[in-house]
Amino acid sequence: MAWPECFSDEVVVDFPSMADAVDRMRSPFLDDTSEPTIAAELSLTARQAFDGATLTLDLPLCWTCRTCGGRGEQWPDPCDGCGGSGTQSRPRRLQVFVPPRVADGTRFRFLVSPSGHPATRVDLRVTVR
């Protein structure tokens, strides 16, 4: 991730190998969170929480409209496929690995980036039954 010139840092200039670490430290404060966010919940049994598990999660992700190619219009009217937004919501099935000994209420945050489509930030909360 490239930062504006005003965020240049002598640590990175003197130690170029530290650039990634410095970017990771700065990102919680300066990160652009323009991606849409989906809140999801994953329910585990006590055994799955203790042993760890790989579970299926279905998420509604935004995709570029197939009808208009993301333009939002078809000469000269708004696109019927997306209502003029240029995107459509479609389900996406993901396999999510939950590590062993996860506690009830644990949150995972990650990005889902389908090839050629906008990234979506996922805020996943684990519940243990």
Which terms would index this structure?
2 domains; 40% strand; 129 residues; alpha+beta; 3 helices; HSP40/DNAj peptide-binding domain
Alpha-beta content class? alpha+beta
Tell me the number of structural domains. Answer: 2
What is the CATH homologous superfamily assignment of the largest domain? Urease metallochaperone UreE, N-terminal domain
Q: Would you tell me the overall average pLDDT?
A: 79
**Pattern of helices and strands:** HHEHEEEEEE
Could you please say which CATH topology of the largest domain applies here? HSP40/DNAj peptide-binding domain
For the biggest β-sheet, the strand order reads 1-7-6
Q: What is the CATH class designation of the largest domain?
A: Mainly Beta
State Rg. Answer: 20 Å
User: How far is the first residue's CA from the last residue's CA?
Assistant: 40 Å
Description of the structure:
By secondary structure, the chain is an alpha+beta fold. It has two domains: 1-32, no CATH class; 33-128, Sandwich (HSP40/DNAj peptide-binding domain). The chain is 18% helix and 40% strand. The protein is built from three helices and seven strands, in the order H-H-E-H-E-E-E-E-E-E. It has helices at 10-14, 19-30, 46-51; strands at 37-44, 53-64, 73-74, 77-78, 87-98, 107-112, 120-128. The strands form three sheets. It has a three-stranded mixed beta sheet with strand order 1-7-6. A hairpin with a 2-residue loop joins strand 3 and strand 4 (77-78). The longest helix has 12 residues, at 19-30. It is flat and about 55 Å long. The model has no long low-confidence stretch (mean pLDDT 79).
